[in-house]
User: What shape does this take?
Amino acid sequence: MPTPAASERRPRLTPAIADVRRAVREALATLAPAGPALVLVALSGGPDSLALAAATAFEAPRAGLSAGAVIIDHGLQSGSATVAARAAAQAEALGLSPVIVRRVEVSSPGAGPEAAARDARYAALAAVRTELGAAAVLLGHTLDDQAETVLLGLARGAGPASLTGMDAARDSLLRPLLGIRRSATVAACADAGLVPWNDPHNRDSAYARVRVRERVLPVLEAELGPGIAEALARTAQQLREDSEALDTIVEEIIEEIVEHAEAGIAVSVAALLANPAALRNRIIRFVSLSEFGVSLSRAHTLAVASLVTEWHGQAGVDLPGVRVKREAGLLVFTSTNDQ
Assistant: This one.
């Protein structure tokens, strides 16, 4: 049997395929390998990650990179091993190599099933990346995922860290498709003759994200007009720029206003008072997280800030794992985990 011509083997370049490829090309261009390097696609077999895998298989060699895939089997659904094997076969058919299937155990003590599965998945992806010496792992989150993340963060009152959404690039994780709609990844798969797996969890209204996707965003589109998802994604980007600028300012001034104290660390009250609330609160959160590994809620942060702005000689504030008190013009943070 004659070998098919290249034009017959390759999918016709449609607008959807072109958009996904362009997004991947731009993401790969941010990598500066010192030689041949490997990138990995986190592949579930769904339309987003499958479109990403196809585009990466096409673009990586042109960027001087090799491309493989990692399939994480969470074992949470009947037949998950079959789904993983199918995704692996699709990755190999696209020319990705190596293709790794990794089974993980998901446990959720104190966390919901979504969070537990996410933690297990990211830990496994990091482990495989390290084992293979890969430069980056590419994730298939789209603009729709970003919009859903922002809405969920807004509903929970989670503050700017949540409203900034997902990073396009952080550490060794790249999200090339954050500017691409989910409809484009579905179209790219159809145009390329790829048949994605549709995860039944993505239609289960027991999950808040699914309710946002299938009920909340459509209502907002209907009542406020089209473009809501894009507007939410733009908002996330603008907030991210502001947040990064404020974080840079905090990092620049923190060394000047912090000093070591007995069994803890101290911050100048005068310096905190001289800064606007946005910086003051960030400094408080920064000290708590960097020194004690404690992420403060908004309520906890304001309770500590009151020792600066509403000081009447009151006692200190007890936080999870940390005690903060004011003495001699300083806010003194000490760990309570060893007490």
